[in-house]
Amino acid sequence: MRTEKTFLDQVHKALTGRDRGLDTVEWVPACWFAPHDGAGVREVNVLDALERAVTSILRAKPQAPNAGQAVYNIFIRHFSALEGVHPTKNRDGDSSTPITRGTYLRTILLLPYLKDLGVTHLHILPVFEMSEARVKGTVGSPYAITTPRRLDSTVVEVGLGLSAEVQYGALVEASHRFGVKVIQEIPLRALAPDSGYLSDHPDWVYWIRRSKFDEFRKPSFTADQYARIATAIETGRLHDLPIAEAIFRNLIQPTPDPSEVRLSATGYSSGGEDPVVPAPAFSDWPFDDHNQPWTDITYLRLFTNPEFDYPAYNTLRYFTPQAVEDQWLNEGVLEYITTTLHHAQNVLGVDGVFIDMGHGFPQNYRRRMREAAPDLELWYEDFNEPPLLITDDIHLGIPEKPGSEWFAKRAVELDAGTSCGVHRCLRALENHNSVRAFATMPDNQARGIWLAALMLPGIPWIHSGQEFKASIAINAVIGDGSGTTVTATPLFNDHALPWNDPANLRTATRHALRTRARMAPLYNESATWRGRVFGEGSALAWHFIGENGYNHRIDVLVNPSEVAVCGRHPTELDPVHLAAGQCVVFVRLGSHVWQLDSERIGEEFKEYAGSCR
User: Fold this and answer.
1) What is the pTM of this model?
2) Which residues, other chains included, contact 530 with Cβ-Cβ below 8 Å and sequence gap of 6+?
3) In the predicted model, is pLDDT for residue 574 greater than 70?
4) Which one of 64, 278, 435, 604 is most buried, counting C-beta atoms within 10 A?
5) Helical pair 164-177 and 46-59, crossing angle rounded to 10 deg
6) Is residue 421 left, alpha or beta, with left meaning phi > 0 and alpha meaning psi from -120 to 50?
């Protein structure tokens, strides 16, 4: 019998003792509830539904984790948000529709949905106290945090009188009872300009004159210098990286005295008529990107070498070796980062931390971070090729526009075997910083490429809404040409997901993840994978084969091109035709072969009728 009082117990007590006269009925997507395939919406008293859900969780035995690995990425206020009117179909980001913001506790209602889908890890975008200076959109950016020690209090069920810490803790506990690990993303590379840390520790960031703030940009280089940078990065000769131009380096001002730092509406500053203020951050990838600065955050100064006392590509990501030697470690920043990880492990109770801009931490930082929280899974957003892996680190690379080139890279990567850490890489065709795959290509191509990527080695990483073909990018996408702006994106505004798209991929996602789990020996370091060109003619299609020597085999045939191709069948001598965008997966266990086809996406894996070789 349980005697320990948990966060779930506190939530249960608040729900059962609440003033029910304040309850409201809302229209909730039917797929939130078992069997999770329903269409349309239900009229639901959400707090009643929460009470039943929490009661059931507390009474039931903890569930075993799903087999295999599959990550589902959510943004709390967006994932469980609801439209305030009865929709015939939820509108993906229709700003004219009133939105009830998602909360920690409403996310608990969706844990059975995620468990049924096959999810093993819940990756939560930042949920910390946000900046009130230079706010983006109507709500602000979850990446512009003042501190990772206080949780976002705007995504709570207000009527229960429970703190954000209790409600978040209940979500973590409930996830664990469903056998789902929680990976919390934390922005450790930057802070908001009104973070209290800047008052006490102004030496943690870079400062510029306020008069230069609006014109501040990342340093630029000549065409020859950009070519030198590219060569140095490609060859690993980072000692040859050009330094930032003098005009840029001179913008960085001496660190103000803590006693002279004052808070204003736009953040901390120091001085009189033209005070110094924290320098805005900017995109650190690619090195020749020149989009607008990120005015709501400022980069942390990781090192103190006076010759490299500026934020640029060679002090943020492609580190000049002499700039990042141990003697120049900014010990105050390092302690802030390591104690934050310790707090996540021991106070938030999460299983791991996803480190935003993880490629912005060199090896000496990563080693100390690992030592600070030895039992915490460390996942890095890491755009390096190959990624900087330490022990069991997990890496999320760049979402690229899917197509033949993407599959060509996967083939090269698989041929390289374990040297690329392929089984510790998260595989995503879209994420919260990219365009949505189903918004950028024909539906048949998107389905086929999505299915193929889901079945290749690596850890599947599903961006919330991808399984029902959401089309609105979460973040303002850099350089995508789509016209996406800060004012139109869910990262900075209240939006709801289009849960009721009738042509969804929920069933196919479930079957694919269950098949991966059943074929687990093919998704670890002992398996052998290879990729080769499939078909004849100018169109490039791909055939990926995974084997482990024990009668397990998967064949993934995908045609990302816009024309049909014909090639040899993996289980028969007869040729096979792939339509434009089509993917066919053959799963072999002994003499039995099952098939999944992106052109019949609603169907289950079924036994293949052909004869095996």
Assistant:
1) 0.92
2) 411, 414, 415, 544, 545
3) no
4) 278
5) 50
6) left
